[in-house]
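Two entries, shown back to back:
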Amino acid sequence: MREMKRLRISLNQTQEEAVEGLTNLAARLFEDGEIKQRLTVSLRQYKKWENNNPPPWPHAAARKVLSAYYGRPVESLGLRPPGTSTSPPTLSPVPLLVQNGTTEPPVGSAGDPMNDQTPPPWLAETPVGGAASTEWRISDEEVESLRLAADDLDAIDQQFGGNRLWRPAKSQLFWLHRMIDHGVYDERMESQLHAVAGKYTTSLGWFCYDAGLHVKARQYFSEALNAAMITGDDVLASRTLSNMARQAVDLKGKGREAVRYARLAQAHAKEWQAPTRVMALLAIREAQGYARVGDRFNCEAAIKRAWHDWERGPDERDPDWSTFLNLAELTCLEGMCRLDLGQGPRAQQLLAESEALQDVAHSRNRGMCLGRLSVAALSIGDVDHSVAATTEALRLVEGGMSSTRAIGQLKIAHDGLALHSKSPGVGDLLEQIRAYVA
């Protein structure tokens, strides 16, 4: 399958939708002065690029639009200038266009001066083909280094949030795919490479979600889920669907979608006989979806299942992505459900218990808990406790926590406290919050 078609399918797009996206993108690039002529992509032309062998070589403006749309050079899409060999050339990365029409900083090529976007030398692009090319044999050490780096990013996310992590994760994933596409390795290594790529892809979706980039997050989650389906990786499917369920809870009108994702995740979890902590996580994700739509009966049942599974204890098979679900976090998630169900006093009690149990290694989660605690306290008229919780959440942000989700909770607390601006300490606190959420 040509790469261009694979990418389109990974985005869950038809050819008609891809054509519409390319045409809209071309109009934006023309308005921004990035291309010098108006461009309309026809379905007939797109089909030729995707299906013809060899495909026609796009003109300069079309090449720029294709590169920006798919986030990679047109050569890596299977397109070649007339008269060139079919051997993959050495390529330079291209910017990926984001939803608001701006472009992300390009990932530096191997020959660029070192900066925060330059890949490490051992992951530099390797020429493939030609007299001067050398074989790029992938080693166990390289794959293990990437796997450990993914673990480090997940750990940093737990402590500080994902705002500053999605760019480096995206860069690592880019080079990982270069290894998959152009490296030399055996079947055992191939399985490891795809497993690490899946790990990065779903983590990248989570980092984008935490940074408030919901469209990007859904794209990466979809790609990770597609990869899981193709490779039969039920563990990756369970994790990705859990992430998708959590994001859906935060999206307006997506509570039922959250429930569907959580239940599908549980079906995949059963396929690999997931340990009970994983089942507890997926049950509380389901409960959050039910709480969001006000289904108290099913929410209560899912919460009960979550606690029943969690209390069965940890397992040596617990995956790293489920270990955050400690007593503090499960208590917090139940408290969030209670708050969404309108059970203010119970929500405040649970969230206060959770906040007292949170540890330093999970300061982002503690910040989320404090934000919800502030809202819960306000829901029952407890301004003093709302101020205390908001003040502590603000301290975490000032200490380096960079989670758009957590800062969003500060904005909600700000709007609630604004109704009590004459209460002691509230006015000054509102000014401090506005410095971060204005």
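entry 2 starts here
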Amino acid sequence: MYACSPNDKNATDNLSAKGEQIITAGGTITEIVYSLGFGDKIIATDRTSTYPSSMQKLPSIGYRNQIKAEGILSLSPDLVLAEDGYLSEEVVNQLKLMDLQIHFFKKPEDPEETKALVKELADLFGVANKGEKINEEIDIDLNELKDYLSQQTEKPSAAFVMARGPETLFLAGEKSFVASIFNLAGIGMAAEGFEDFVPLTPESLVTMSPEYLVLFDSGLESLGGVEGLSKIQGMKETKAFQKRQVLSFDGHYLSGFGPRVGQVALELAKAVRNK
């Protein structure tokens, strides 16, 4: 196995010349590879690769620490594209024993990093022009978002709750993907003073009383829908619940920072302004 840089010319020549069988680990990578025109080369993906929907029909290698080297190798890929840190060190070391190309990429946390990743992958596959076209479309979406926000005077507050059932609830704080997408959509973070994710408490809900509550579709479903939120202590006291201002989005769409980042940010910006 060798892991080469996306800027390695020989690697680029090989990828553009051969009919590689690809495994992707990371929904954003999968979406970009598909957008670049190589979706038919993907033979397996991970659980976060939910877009486009056709990717969900492929064999799954699992999710993060559940992924095993044997599962990857049994599919006989020519190439593995993965997010930094997505595969465990043990899996990476096992794969190093095989003659397999592996490339790692930083998961984007803002639109500029999204465009950088598109360029990296486009260069890797030798289709720079396609990458430029995707990035132009991202800029069009971001300009539409900018134009919309320039006409708004209000900045609603919102909180994001990561839910895996009523007993497993986390609140998003600063330096999380939530802070980045909220900032992009012109939304105030109701949760401040901490980073990443912390367990949700009734006290924090009452203190924040966000105007809007945002969840993943899967998270809201795990709670039994909007009405199921009433079972969470402190939830009934929030403005968001009282006014039924609860929003949910597909997890990858909201957090992936893929080519549709401008679209989801605009959708979120309009949703909290009811426009």
